[in-house]
Amino acid sequence: MAATAAPAPQRVRVDPGKLEDFMTEAYVALGMPREDARVCAWGVVFADLRGHESHGVSNNVLGSYVPGLRSGDTKARPNIRILQETTVTSRWDGDQGMGFVVGHRVMQWVIERARQHGAAFAAVANSRHYGMAQCYSYMALEHDLIGYSLTNGVTPGVVPFQGRESRLGTNPISVAIPAGEMPPYLLDMATTTVAFGKIQNYQRDGKPIPPTFALGRDGRPTTDPNEALAAVRLLPLGANKEGSGHKGYGLGLMVDIFCGGLSGHGFRATPDDPEAVSHFFGAWRPDAFLPLDEFKSLMDGRLREMTQTAPSEGYDRVLYAGLPEWESEQDKRANGIPLHPSVVEKLRGLAGELGLDFDISR
Amino acid sequence: MAATAAPAPQRVRVDPGKLEDFMTEAYVALGMPREDARVCAWGVVFADLRGHESHGVSNNVLGSYVPGLRSGDTKARPNIRILQETTVTSRWDGDQGMGFVVGHRVMQWVIERARQHGAAFAAVANSRHYGMAQCYSYMALEHDLIGYSLTNGVTPGVVPFQGRESRLGTNPISVAIPAGEMPPYLLDMATTTVAFGKIQNYQRDGKPIPPTFALGRDGRPTTDPNEALAAVRLLPLGANKEGSGHKGYGLGLMVDIFCGGLSGHGFRATPDDPEAVSHFFGAWRPDAFLPLDEFKSLMDGRLREMTQTAPSEGYDRVLYAGLPEWESEQDKRANGIPLHPSVVEKLRGLAGELGLDFDISR
What we know:
Helix content of chain A: 40-55%
Structural class of chain A: alpha+beta
Number of strands of chain A: 9
CATH architecture of the largest domain in chain A: 2-Layer Sandwich
Largest sheet of chain A: 7 strands, mixed
Number of helices of chain A: 13
CATH superfamily of the largest domain in chain A: Malate/L-lactate/L-sulpholactate dehydrogenase, NADPH binding domain
Mean pLDDT of chain A: 94
Largest interface: A-B, 82 and 82 residues
Low-confidence stretches of chain A: none
Oligomer: homodimer
Radius of gyration of chain A: 20 Å
Number of domains of chain A: 3
């Protein structure tokens, strides 16, 4: 995680388009069809553009995607198929494909059906880590749809409220809602106070964590980031009784049920497939409810009102979900994605191993 | 709010069935059709059964329902109608009817369509306070559906994350999911750390509130419950930067958009209708995704697992959303609803005013 931590001057700004092209070639070299490789490359580069490095190319190389494809644990050419469907609902088998590919395929079905019928939903089992939850809710926006994306996690790393043992994943919720002139509303939140990446930042900076982040191995709230990372017991959003931690826990369990329940997969990895996760996707067509221009006008008014309300002490403005990520994306599309030199070197190493050209410079 | 606060020995246990019958007669006397009166009576008594007195008969008498009907601000015989619809979506005008009646009517449409097509959704404008959000998600359970219920609030009483002025309501989310042998999952949460009732409890007990509950009139977190109640600036779930308050704010804004946006109503009361609120309802049919017995078996396993995992220090067990309310309901159906004597006297007074018999004894 040192890459995430580096001060800005050390970073190298690279070209987003070239980076996506390189990642596409890498995935093709790892056995994926070109079209699917492009989907995965888009997903990881989109994370870097949105400012979520934890889900960007550094994770892609250091993390599970490339090793999974190499080991065969993740199938480069899965047979993704529908197991049950109605006009507006479906259940899928992801066949251990890359989560990006599975999610993209299923969300395409959801979007098509929602465009036709006003709303549509799908649950999918036997998938893999699918990157940022917002990759799929975001897909709905270009069709003027509201997009919805949930996933459960591979390994339990979150305790229930009042519990001391991890029983849930970070189980994020993403909702994307189109606006007119304003950048869209795009919520993408783990149902915990924070994800592990934030604790790693405190560890790196040598700072204590607030007691609302995680429990230690003794089952009590800890302020030691090392202990929190060793214990793997994140607290749900709200954390404790005074923070209403039962609410974050309630949301996390809801995500679990929509993903693991409606997909038929269940709620934890099985011995014969320890990496399996399940997702749930949805879309609503606003103009199935009211004229689209009327909806977009309401959205613009509401979102603008939020950015114009008075900030509290210590803040210079009020934001809304998706606005900081949208601003990050504008900056990085114009000025390049700032990567830590060690990440660039790892990508160069991958290029060498796969026999690919490597040029991601601006 | 003294009624909520009384120690148990002072309470009078009353008969839930008789209480509901009395409330039905009261609403009929206030001009409502008997069928609609029954729906409202069920809603307020259900709140008392579930242990949410803030939404029970005491609020009904002391609060807005009866005065609203008397003033004519809430219509006893509204013309609730569909403004736009597709097979699985619709938008409604509540015509300033009682929120219970509007919500019940619209949720019935949602349930019928979801049973036919797998999922269905509706937004409704020009309604009134609809009691507990779970009244409507709960309706789905007897049809083996997942139920969904959102509402925005009449008056802004919640600040955006990083903001100092109230711009949102407490905007609750309720999700009800059927199980087999286990009591159903039933989430019903304001998207704030707490609602005002909780702060009133601290005020009554003369205790300081945690700084995660609300801001004072100076726009800073306050520990004084009197100041918090005077300022009307609740904090979103997560409260501050260390608690990830942007998440609760993000959820609150999502509720606002589904209710006020998709209903076309917009995001605040208008001068010509200062009491208007809007709602959003939904339902999914689990057996549109997978066989129902398979889903229920997964639910039972997951919910049971949660109740069996080890509690943390200071707690005797782990619960899940809806379980404590289900236990409350079992107790109160068997042993009566414990009302404060002052609430009983107020109901008796209402009976006198309306010329009704009054017997709610067990």
